[in-house]
Write a structure and sequence with these properties.
CATH class of the largest domain: Alpha Beta
CATH superfamily of the largest domain: Class I glutamine amidotransferase (GATase) domain
Helix content: 10-25%
Number of helices: 15
Structural class: alpha+beta
Strand content: 25-35%
CATH architecture of the largest domain: 3-Layer(aba) Sandwich
Number of strands: 39
Number of domains: 5
Radius of gyration: 40 Å
């Protein structure tokens, strides 16, 4: 259906008609006054047409075509499915439920029935952008919230959109501001209605979260279990955190939790039984808490009985070597061997001493950690072949290497050898003898070092920092310029600086499958002053176990599996490395190694691992973490009849902060701009009734403005040109 309209007033239309008649009469008089000339008649016709077109332009005529909607009006319900919606702060049926749970409950009822009587209801969940590239078949992946994209998508998808109802906490952390989409809605007279799901202030609650448990631990050895607490109450609390193995309390931790703060604490456990332990960490429920079911966390730790093989190499029995040897010798979890390259006494003798360096892959492979002291490469030291084997142990076999230079300066001979790439720091080669001090200096922990497992003498961060300040210092250190890229600094010289800052003296560096530790002073033995082995023994015991951790993640007789990262998240690539020994106990040179991975959903993938060149018996593969939850990894070597089964937990990435207050200000803005309305959860029913009585969207109108058409203007200009050319041609100018 179509019709014409004029934008001008009736008086202007009458005036235009009279002016047109007057122009006709005037043209007629001119024509008759010129003997009814045909040329004059043609010119006057042109002029009349021009005048009429000008008068039409002034009247602004429009042809309006009305198109009725073919489909019934739609109301889109956008349901927020982002991570923040798992926050439990909605009171529903006298219970505290999660925001998403409230939405699911409401959408599962006939709450939308009034709208369905007059409109077509489309329910759509949103979180991350719909067009965002994601790995195929990835599940349980919590993305961010792009509220603007969700609103724009609904506007583009539905042609006959009546209104949008958004059920959300208003928290958006991806994309543009939703105010941009709200402006588009306003331009099309489509209101946005919003239900704020969640409180703008948190419920009174203490939450236990993020227990960081290792994959395995050693029986009788201390295991540190960091955990996070969130206090959303306006008062301080003091209580005991309890670690339970089944129903038995195996560890306790006194916790002081300040008001309205987040706190990280650590509980220490020494397992006394081997096997997979089902552990639970609990904190007592406080009287005023609104939520009582988030005060515990369950997890598993595989406890094993293991003896770590350690090789200590040095040039002469200096003090650091003697006390290190004594500490490791008394450690029941360590099987130690020693090797001295002394120019007078030779390789050393006695219990635990080797007569020569383990000069083959088969002989060095059993060692978990090697301590390399003040011994060089060359005469009266290690050969190039020896350090090549050490490098292979770290890189291929996930072994650990501890570098402990001394005052003889033999560490400079490590440069330009296969060891150079492993060193965490860059030596000052102009001072191979190191830096001697008159006054006692100390190791100053860095921010990373203050919380690292290697440097933890006490589970309390404050107490641990105080202990390091009280430790006896040193009078000599290795001359170091700076750390190397990829290294992490745990401690620095407290007084000496250079152009790159304080000199790093305790640094770690990953290399291949293994780890490297640099200790830049030879005076750790002085930590025994007044306390005997308390801190000296503790430090080196932690070093050995941390350096060997990756190597022992999962193992069985003759087969070992390492993987990185140890706690992968969805979307990350997990690198698997399997070490297989043949029936003689030597690294497998030829053969097949097959890995099978069973996902939490029951899917199973089997693939053949590829042998690494070099003869270390290493087979590698990779997998992409596509599902959260526990994965079962089976590795088999059919020819050697070796097999291993282990579990790998894939975590969901925490993109959004759970427990964050709702953003009512965002919802206020978009509803105001679009001329809609915002309510809380108690106002949902009233809001639905209001939406149900909204008028239907107006039919589509297509307007054709003749006076604004470019072809109309071009025709008018063309006629004017012909008219003036004609007058000149006939001599009427």
């Amino acid at each position: 259906m179509s019709h014409w309209t004029f934008a001008s007033s009736p008086l202007l239309i009458i005036a235009a008609f009279l002016l047109g008649m007057l122009s006709v009469w005037f043209s007629y008089r001119i024509w008759t006054g010129n003997a009814r000339s045909r040329q004059i008649m043609a010119l006057e016709i042109f002029r009349l047409i021009i005048i009429i077109m000008l008068l039409i332009t002034l009247l602004r005529p429009e042809r309006i075509q009305t198109i009725q909607w073919a489909e019934e009006p739609a109301v889109v319900v956008l349901s927020d499915a982002s991570g923040s919606m798992t926050t439990r702060d909605v009171i529903y049926t006298n219970q505290v439920v999660a925001r998403q749970e409230w939405i699911t409950s409401k959408l599962g009822t006939d709450a939308l029935a009034p709208i369905q009587k007059t409109s077509r209801v489309v329910v759509d969940a949103f979180d991350a952008p719909s067009d965002q590239e994601k790995p195929e078949d990835v599940t349980n992946l919590i993305e961010g919230t792009d509220l603007n994209q969700a609103l724009e998508s609904a506007l583009q998808r539905e042609s006959n959109l009546k209104a949008v109802l958004v059920l959300t906490d208003g928290d958006w952390n991806l994309g543009d501001s939703p105010a941009l989409a709200a402006a588009q809605y306003r331009n099309q007279s489509i209101p946005i209605f919003a239900v704020q799901v969640g409180r703008e202030s948190p419920l009174p609650d203490i939450e236990l979260s993020a227990v960081s448990a290792p994959s395995y631990g050693l029986m009788g050895e201390q295991i540190s279990l960091p955990f996070h607490l969130h206090n959303r109450m306006q008062k301080d609390f003091k209580f005991k955190a309890l670690l339970k193995d089944g129903d038995e309390i195996v560890a306790e931790k006194e916790v002081t939790l300040p008001a309205s703060t987040d706190l990280q604490e650590t509980i220490v456990w020494s397992p006394q039984q081997v096997g997979e332990r089902n552990l639970t960490l609990e904190i007592p429920v406080q009287g005023d808490e609104a939520l009582t079911d988030n005060n515990s966390a369950a997890f598993k730790v595989n406890v094993r009985m293991e003896t770590l093989k350690v090789l200590v190499i040095d040039s002469y029995p200096r003090w650091e070597y003697r006390y290190l040897r004594n500490a490791l010798e008394r450690d029941p979890g360590v099987d130690m061997s020693c090797l001295l390259f002394h120019p007078q006494t030779g390789m050393g003798g006695g219990r635990d001493y080797l007569s020569s360096f383990p000069s083959s892959k088969d002989l060095i492979a059993p060692y978990d950690v090697i301590f390399l002291g003040d011994v060089g490469v060359g005469e009266n030291g290690l050969s190039t072949e020896d350090v090549t084997l050490i490098r292979g142990l770290v890189e291929q076999q996930a072994g650990g290497l501890v570098l402990m230079p001394g005052r003889r300066g033999r560490h400079t001979t490590w440069l330009e050898t296969p060891l150079e790439e492993l060193i965490p720091v860059q030596f000052d080669t102009s001072r191979p003898e190191g830096i001697a001090l008159q006054n006692e200096a100390q190791l100053a922990l860095t921010r990373l070092g203050s919380g690292h497992w290697l440097t933890r003498f006490d589970i309390s961060a404050e107490r641990n920092a105080e202990l390091w300040k009280q430790l006896p210092g040193f009078y000599w250190s290795t001359a170091v310029e700076k750390s190397r890229p990829g290294s992490e600094i745990l401690a620095v010289h407290d007084s000496i600086r250079n152009n790159w800052g304080r000199i790093p003296l305790l640094a770690i560096r990953p290399f291949g499958n293994g780890k490297v530790l640099f200790m830049g002073t030879d005076s750790a033995w002085r930590w025994r002053r007044g306390v005997e082995d308390l801190y000296h023994y503790r430090f080196w015991s932690q070093v050995v176990r941390w350096m060997a951790h990756q190597r022992h993640i999962s193992q069985d007789e003759g087969i070992r599996l390492t993987y990185t990262p140890e706690k992968p998240e969805i979307g990350q690539t997990v690198y698997l490395s399997t070490i297989v020994m043949d029936r003689s106990g030597y690294p497998l040179q030829e053969g097949r190694v097959v890995a099978s991975i069973t996902t939490p959903s029951g899917g199973r993938e089997t693939f053949e691992m590829q042998a690494e060149e070099g003869g270390w018996g290493v087979f590698r593969a990779s997998m992409e973490a596509r599902q959260s939850g526990m994965h079962i990894i089976e590795v088999q070597s059919p020819e050697e009849n070796r097999q291993l089964e282990t579990r790998l937990e894939v975590l969901r990435p925490v993109v959004e902060k759970i427990g964050k207050p709702a953003r009512g200000d965002v919802l206020d803005e978009i509803t105001r701009i679009s001329r809609g309305k915002k309510v809380d959860t108690t106002g949902l029913n009233g809001l639905i009734e209001q939406i149900s009585v909204l008028p239907e969207p107006k039919p589509i109108e297509i307007r054709f403005r003749l006076w604004a058409n470019p072809f109309w203007g071009a025709a008018l200009l063309g006629l004017l040109a012909f008219y003036w050319i004609g007058r000149k041609y006939f001599g009427l100018v």
